[in-house]
Each structure stands twice: as C-alpha cells, then as structure tokens.
Design a protein that fits this description.
396 residues, Growth Hormone, Chain: A
Length: 396
C-alpha cells in the first residue's frame, strides 16, 4: 500500500497548479485580453464552482465507468485543458479551457477520498493529512515558480502551460494504481448511499469548509495583484503568495497530527482562530508586516482544510458512504467558495481598492470560527468498526 500512497501524493501535487498558477499571471492576462477584475476572477471562480457542481455526479460516474477509470479520464482532461489554455487566442477559449481544468480537478478530487477511506480505513486522518499536504505542496510550487517562468519567457503562456506536466505525472501515477487494483474494487459496491441532505452535521461541515475555501481561493486569486497595488513588484508579490501557500502546506500535517480522535472541534477552533487573527491583521494594516500576516492566514486555513477534509470520512462507515458525504460537502462548499474570487474582483472594480474585500473576508473568517463548536460527529455513540480502528491507530 506504500506504492499507492506515493501515487496519491503524485496525483495531489497535480490537482492545484491549474488554479494557483493563475494568481501570479493575472496582471499579464488582464492586460492581454482587456479583462476587468470581475472577469479575471472567473479564472479561479470557474474551477472552484465546478469542484462543487461535479462532485454531485462523480459517485454515479464511478459506478457506471469504474472509479479508477473515471479518475484517469479526469486527470487526462486536466492535462489536456492545461495545454489548451496556454494556447488560448481569445477570452472565450481561455474560459473554456479553465472549465476543463476545473472539471478534471473536481472529479478526481471527489473520488480519491473514497479510495483513501477504502484503502486506509485505520489511518484515514493520517493519509488525508498527507494528501492535503501534497495538495498544498503543489500549490506552493506553482505559486513560487510561475511568476519567474512568466518573467523568463516574457509572457504568461509558458507559465500556465508548464503545469500540464504535473497533470501527466498524475495520470501516470494513477495508471499504476488502477493496474494494481482488483476489478471488483474499481467499481462501487451494490450498496448506494444518498447524499446526507437532511443531516444537520453534514450542512455544518459543508458551511465550515465553504468559509475556509472562500478565504483560500480569494487570496489565491488576488493576493499577488493586491500587493502589486500596494507597491510591491511582481516578483515580491509572487513571493508573498508562495509564502502563503507554503504556510498552508506546513499546517496540513501539523493539524493532522494534533487531531487524534473524531471529535475535532478544539483543533478546528484553534485553526479557525489563527486564520481570523491573520485576516484582521490584513484588514487593519496589510502592508505593515505582510510575511506574518499571510503566514497566520495560511496556517489557519491550512489546518482547517486538513481537518475539514477528514470530517466527512469521520461520519461514514465505508468508502461508498464516504463518497456520498464527500460529494455533498464538496458540492455545497465549493459552490459557495467560488463566490470568493468573484466578489473580491467585483468589490475591487466597484470601489477602486481591495479594502472592502478584506472586510468581507474577515467576516467570513468570523463565521467559520463560530461554526466550530457544532462540528461534533453526529454518531459518537455508535462508532463503527472502521472508526474504532481509526481511533486506535491515531492514538498510539
């Protein structure tokens, strides 16, 4: 199973550059296509929205086509769309290719959680923290080098297209997983689970995750352009974004380690509180100490991200139920989170500054912290054998 874990990491590394790499490139893309800030925000909002909407049919597609085969299709789409976007000659083709990137990320990301639940039932929290760390590492790499690549080649296209390579690596990694998975496990079992629409805990998890992703994708889109407006050059602004993604990555294993049982409310509150402190500092004085400010925001949202990804699995008894819970949480959370980049862009166009956007982000951070006391698992008195094994493994 170690080989499968390595493949999960390789796939995760390729699931965020298609979104994160756009932030350092936005000023160049805006200039070339004559986009408004609102229109430019769609380059992040569209993938985020699709990560929610396509979570709904993903389990059905897995049953019809086969889980591993569907993940392969999604990763192939991600790689192809990344290349297409680099050659886009119009804003329309730019947005179409971006939608393809979002669709590939959405389907692959939804189904991998079920694979983790099935393959590592006694180490769900640990593997999810590794997966989240790899997602963040992919974000950090793309944030760090995309601006430099664009400057080296004097344009945004190479900086965007180079991330097709990470998609191809992810595709090759999952081919290895699929070749080693028995056919009986590549399709869903006969037992089907409805999404937990009527479950209060599921809604609270989805709303918490929505707030966290709202903040994350708002900053991923606009942090670099924001600091360019504050007087930083493009290289310095890209470095601030890279530090943001790096702190996000570091938080993933830290909070995965700190959270040692299924009632994760204390570490959730700690991570949300750290993020809120950073958001308030950004609101009051964004230029006073940007390195500390972005580290606080990213460390808090990174910890919350890892824990929020684990919450649906805490409430599921098996891989199929985990897919249903995960699909519901991703649907609700990413549809809401897609508004983050869009609203920040709209407020920037309407007001001429990013200050109103920072008020909005701080309010969302406060709401995220307020939700944490209500995130106790809804079945604590009837822990399944799988959950008991998870608890035993994470307590040694």
């Amino acid at each position: 199973m170690f080989a499968a874990l390595v493949c999960i990491v390789l796939v995760a590394l390729g699931l965020r550059p298609g979104i994160v790499s756009i932030g350092p490139l936005l000023p160049r893309i805006i200039a070339q296509f004559g986009l408004s800030h609102t229109q430019a925000s769609l380059l992040t909002a569209i993938p985020t929205l699709l990560m929610g909407l396509l979570a709904l049919p993903a389990p059905w597609l897995a049953r019809r086509v086969g889980r591993d085969r569907m993940i392969l299709i999604a990763l192939a789409l991600l790689a192809a769309a990344s290349l297409l976007r680099a050659f886009a000659g119009s804003a329309t083709l730019l947005f179409v290719a971006t939608a393809g990137i979002g669709a590939g990320i959405a389907v692959a990301g939804t189904l991998i959680a079920g694979f983790i639940k099935e393959s590592y039932p006694a180490r769900v929290a640990m593997v999810m923290s590794i997966y989240a760390t790899a997602l963040a590492l992919g974000s950090s790499m793309s944030a760090l080098v995309t601006g430099a690549i664009a400057a080296r080649f004097d344009g945004w296209r190479v900086g965007a297209g180079v991330w097709m390579v990470s998609g191809l690596v992810a595709l090759a990694a999952w081919l290895l997983v699929a070749s080693g998975t028995p056919k009986a496990r590549q399709t869903a079992t006969a037992k089907r689970y409805a999404m937990p629409i009527g479950n209060r805990t599921a809604w609270l998890i989805a709303l918490f995750f929505a707030c966290n992703n709202f903040i994350f994708y708002a900053y991923i889109s606009w942090l670099a352009p924001m600091y360019v407006e504050y007087g930083r050059n493009a290289a310095s602004a890209s470095l601030i974004l890279a530090i943001f993604t790096l702190a996000f990555m570091v938080a993933n294993p830290v909070f995965g380690f700190l959270s040692r049982n299924e009632d994760r409310r204390v570490p959730l509150a700690i991570s949300a509180g750290i993020a809120l402190a950073g958001n308030l500092l950004m609101l009051v004085s964004p230029t006073a100490c940007p390195w500390l400010t972005v580290v606080l925001i990213a460390f808090g949202t990174g910890g919350s991200f890892t824990l929020a990804m684990t919450l649906p699995l805490d409430n599921a008894a098996n891989a199929d139920e985990a897919n249903a819970w995960n699909a519901f949480v991703l649907l609700v959370s990413y549809v809401i989170a897609a508004a983050g980049p869009l609203l920040v862009g709209q407020l920037r166009d309407a007001s001429g500054s990013f200050q109103p956007s920072l008020w909005l982000i701080a309010a969302v951070g406060a709401a995220m912290l307020a939700i944490t006391p209500f995130l106790q698992p809804y079945r604590p008195s009837s822990i399944t054998l799988t959950q008991a094994a998870t608890k035993s493994a994470t307590n040694f």
